[in-house]
Specification:
Layout: E1 6-10, E2 23-30, E3 33-38, E4 42-46, H1 47-53, E5 71-74, E6 78-88, E7 97-98, E8 103-106, E9 124-134, H2 137-143, E10 147-151, H3 154-158, H4 165-171
Length: 187
């Protein structure tokens, strides 16, 4: 099983406060474990304010200030002081790792100076921290019915309003969130 480029959608029974009501975009999944970014839990700071606080120096002028008004996300409980940027693929960012033909991820500060400028990726999501699972841990959580999985959709990551991402990810499965039980079990 490889869940790279899939969403993990927290079941209503999820009690872990780090993941309750969350949608996690899985960036990597292999025999050693999994890594993902929570895409629907914003924190109380905009990208622009964060960039001001860390005093990012820009070589290019900001041309799209509205793009910097989007929130920064709580990407997960691991390395919460470290930034991650999910973005559409662009040619100039050599430090990015391509997850798919549409989505890349980077931890390099280089991208931060480009956000909002003419060289910015068209779509980006900035998160602090990530979600991580050791080998076999995610698979065990799936057996325990903690998560639903569905193939990821870049439109949900970048263009769907934050408060609609969980429902939209559930809808991709062809089911309504109203039909999900808060009880765990196996049939």
């Amino acid at each position: 099983m490889n869940l790279t480029n899939h969403f993990l959608v927290a079941m209503p029974s999820m009690q872990d406060p780090n993941f309750k009501g969350s949608v996690v975009y899985i960036c990597e999944h292999n025999d050693e474990g999994a890594m993902g970014i929570v895409i629907n839990l914003p924190i109380e700071i905009s990208v622009g304010n964060m960039l001001d606080q860390i005093e990012i120096e820009r070589e290019l002028p900001v041309r799209d200030p509205a793009s910097l008004e989007q929130p920064v996300f709580n990407g997960g409980p691991v390395s919460a002081d470290r930034g991650f940027v999910l973005h559409n693929r662009v040619g100039r960012l050599s430090s990015s790792i391509d997850v798919t033909d549409e989505v890349s991820i980077t931890t390099s500060k280089d991208i931060l100076s480009l956000l909002g400028t003419s060289e910015s990726p068209d779509n980006f999501l900035v998160a602090l921290g990530y979600a991580g699972w050791d080998a076999g841990q995610l698979e065990q959580e799936l057996i325990e019915n903690v998560w639903l999985t569905t193939e990821a959709n870049a439109d949900v990551v970048f263009n769907t309003p934050v408060n609609e991402r969980w429902n939209k990810a559930i809808a991709q499965l062809g089911i309504s969130a109203a039909h999900l039980s808060t009880e765990q079990g196996h049939a």
